[in-house]
Amino acid sequence: MPATSFLFYRTFLPALSELDDAVVLSFDNKTFLRVYGTNVQGMPEHFIHSGNFFALPYSKRPELRTKERILALQERLVNAKTNGLMTLNVPVSYGLKTPIWQYDTKDRLRALEEGLKAALWAKENAKHPDLLYAGFEIGTYDDAMYIFNKASDVGLTRFAAGFGLFSRFIQFRNEDKLKQFEVLAAFNHVLNERGTIEFHVSGGSALNILELLAYANVSSADGSSAVLTGLAYGSVLTASGSLIRANKLKEWGCDCESCSGSDKHTALNQLKSSPEARVRHNICRVRLSEARINEALRENTLAELTERRLKEYDKKELWRCYTMIRKTKSRM
Ligand SMILES: [Zn+2]
Question: Is the pTM here over 0.70, yes or no?
Answer without folding.
Answer: yes
